[in-house]
Specification:
alpha/beta, Rossmann fold, Dihydrodipicolinate Reductase, domain 2, 9-stranded mixed sheet, 6-stranded parallel sheet, 15 strands
Length: 370
């Protein structure tokens, strides 16, 4: 069988996480890598070996005829133009988050995907975390009943902003919300978010950009209403001095599940309206979500656990890459398609508008209607 020929743009930075799982895959090969860091590019070429070609120009790599798939792991302003350039040449694209910076960029990308013979995926690795996959299986099996509410928090202390650091320049409102919306939208069958509102804590880090403005508030909450009226809540906090945390909660007609993702080994819990649970009014009986792992953990997770150590965002990066490559090999749809990518990205972009208007509800455009 012909191997999937892969290229990685930004291989010295975020793109490096794709190298090891691609090298471990016997039906894929890295044929080209691209980065402006020539010294780092040389080091990765030596690690990859074979006949991998090095490029410092993205367009030259795309036009080289060496690729079936390109990973766009470059800075956010390049995500749309580089994705579109590859899609216009019918090369499959896996792009890091978020998919775009503006509503107009979203429209441009969406149209390019619909016109292309190739597939597009946004690489939201949180969708591939162990407990999120298990919970998705529980929800899809109807065990939790009809889900109507979910919340996710992304608590990641970044320290005092730096004028040269991309998070300092671009993170404000809730525009970096894909790590939360990704898993929740997966549980909600990617029902389209119809409107959002965003409000901040009113407190800022002591940092001003070139225009003398302070935009990044210490904490922000984003509320999202789906077309059927279900509610999603995202809380982002990049400045409170605490360890990295990624907790979630989802409520359904049969109970509630809580993911306590403060570390890969911490337990998550579920409570259901069944005889297996104490149903007294003040019940504190919860059961471990790990109980459902054997039934709902994905095949890729089991394969990865046999082959690699516990690395790459608790193996989520490896599972994501393997699922991408297997989908392309088998001619199947990539896991996070353009519709889910837009459903994750547009609320974050428009959260800044809502924040500036004091928490006003903002309608999310339906790109299918354009």
């Amino acid at each position: 069988m012909k191997k999937i020929r892969c290229g990685i743009a930004g291989v010295v930075g975020r793109g490096q996480i794709y190298v090891d799982p691609m090298l471990a895959c016997d039906f894929a090969e890295i044929t080209a890598i691209c980065d402006l860091n020539e010294e780092g590019l040389k080091e990765y070429a030596e690690k990859i070996g074979g006949n991998v070609k090095c490029f410092t120009n993205y367009e030259e790599m795309i036009d080289s005829g060496l690729l079936d798939l390109v990973v766009v792991a470059t800075p956010i302003p390049f995500h749309v133009p580089q994705s579109v350039y590859a899609l216009e040449r019918d090369i499959n694209v896996v792009c890091e988050v978020p998919a775009a910076e503006t509503v107009e960029e979203c429209k441009t990308l969406y149209k390019a995907v619909k016109k292309s013979k190739a597939q597009y995926m946004m690489a939201e690795n949180c969708n591939f975390y162990k407990m999120f996959i298990v919970l998705d299986g529980i929800i899809k099996a109807g065990i939790l009943g009809e889900v109507h509410y979910a919340e996710g928090q992304y608590l990641h202390c970044l320290g005092l902003p730096s004028k040269d650091e991309w998070r300092s320049k671009s993170l404000w409102g809730a525009n970096y919300c894909t790590h939360n919306l990704g898993p929740m939208l997966q549980w909600f069958d990617n029902e389209r978010i119809a409107k959002i509102c965003c409000i901040g804590s009113g407190r800022h880090q002591k940092f001003k950009d070139a225009d003398g403005e302070i935009k990044r508030e210490k904490a922000n909450v984003l509320l999202c209403k789906t077309e059927s009226g279900r509610l999603l809540q995202v809380r982002l906090d990049f400045d409170t001095p605490t360890p990295y945390m990624l907790p979630f909660e989802v409520s359904g007609s049969n109970g509630r599940a809580i993911i306590r993702a403060t570390s890969p080994v911490e337990e998550s819990y579920i409570h259901l309206t069944s005889n297996d649970f104490d149903q007294t009014h003040y019940s504190e009986e919860w059961k471990s979500l790990q109980y459902f792992e054997k039934q709902f953990l994905s095949e890729s997770w089991n394969e990865v656990c046999e082959k690699i150590p516990n690395t790459g965002h608790a193996r989520a990066d490896y599972v994501m890459v393997w699922d991408i490559l297997k989908a392309l090999r088998d001619g199947k749809k990539l896991p996070v398609d353009i519709d889910m990518a837009m459903n994750m990205t547009l609320p974050g972009i428009l959260s800044k508008v809502s924040l500036e208007r004091g928490g006003e509800w903002i309608d999310i455009p339906d790109l299918n209607e354009d």
